[in-house]
Write a structure and sequence with these properties.
This protein has helices at 21-33, 42-49, 51-60, 106-116, 176-189, 217-223, 227-242, and strands spanning 84-88, 98-100, 126-130, 137-144, 147-155, 169-172, 193-201, 204-211. The chain is an alpha+beta fold. It has 2 domains: 45-64 and 133-234, 2-Layer Sandwich (D-amino Acid Aminotransferase, Chain A, domain 1), CATH 3.30.470.20; 71-130. Helix 2 (42-49) crosses helix 3 (51-60).
Length: 244
């Protein structure tokens, strides 16, 4: 909007707006009415913004996930065995993620109490998960139109389990099982474009996270796949069909 006028965008690719999605969804609805084309529908994005909702949606479709709980918001910590991970439901980039050796760690209770304090405004809830058996290594799979177009394996730096943080090691390629699961997850959520994080857990792979507007620069750099061009070309074709 500029001096009362507006310019309609034909193709719109949102980026990194998980925490303000209620605003973005209203904006997407407005642009949709004006004929703009998006990589994903509003409905499919809503399923993948909140990590808990994503997990529930995938479980409903019988897709393997890392178990999740938000019971700590009531002050009760689920008694998962072994080490635990606590993460913000709308987080990204590895920010705000913490690990604890067991459910008995008093620091987890501290997070629960923080979440219940009416004097501290929290704009998101926290998830608690058992530490995956493959923690420290995971696979980012970029999906476009139902299939993987690029995949990487990410390894956390020494002393960390966070694979998408600074100084993590990223290399091209991922196991076939991880890629297949990622494609199934994107399909289950109705996402045509997605970044799906898959981790080894117990005897197989499990979905760790799904992003409906993933960052692609690192994946492009490591794999030499021009993801941006492929996405734009696909959206241009959609726009032409919609307005033919």
């Amino acid at each position: 909007m500029n001096n009362g006028s507006h310019a309609d965008a034909q193709i719109v690719i949102p980026r990194g707006v998980n925490r303000v999605f209620p605003f973005v969804s209203q904006w997407m609805k407005l642009m949709d009415k004006r004929g703009s084309v998006f990589p994903n529908s509003i409905e499919s994005c809503e399923k993948s913004i909140d990590k808990l909702r994503t997990s529930i949606a995938l479980v409903d479709e019988e897709i393997a996930v890392v178990p999740s709980s938000v019971a700590l918001l009531t002050g009760f910590v689920p008694q998962y065995d072994g080490a635990l991970v606590v993460k913000p439901a709308f987080g990204s980039g590895g920010l705000g993620i913490h690990s604890f050796p067991s459910a008995d760690d008093p620091r987890i209770r501290g997070i629960a109490n923080l979440s219940r304090n009416p004097d501290i405004p929290l704009y998101q809830h926290f998830l608690l998960q058992p530490m995956a058996t493959g923690a420290g290594t995971d696979h980012r799979v970029v999906i476009l139109n139902g299939r993987s177009i690029a995949a990487t394996t990410r390894r956390a730096r020494t002393g960390s389990f966070i694979t998408n943080g600074p100084n993590a090691n990223v290399e091209a390629g991922a196991p076939t099982g991880a890629i297949t699961l990622a494609e199934q997850a994107a399909h289950a959520l109705g996402l045509r474009f997605a970044g799906v994080d898959v981790i080894r857990n117990d005897d197989g792979f499990a979905v760790l996270d799904v992003n409906c507007w993933p960052g692609i620069s690192m994946t492009e750099e490591v794999t030499s796949v021009d993801i941006a061009s492929a996405l734009i070309e696909s959206l241009v074709q959609d726009f032409r069909v919609a307005h033919s």
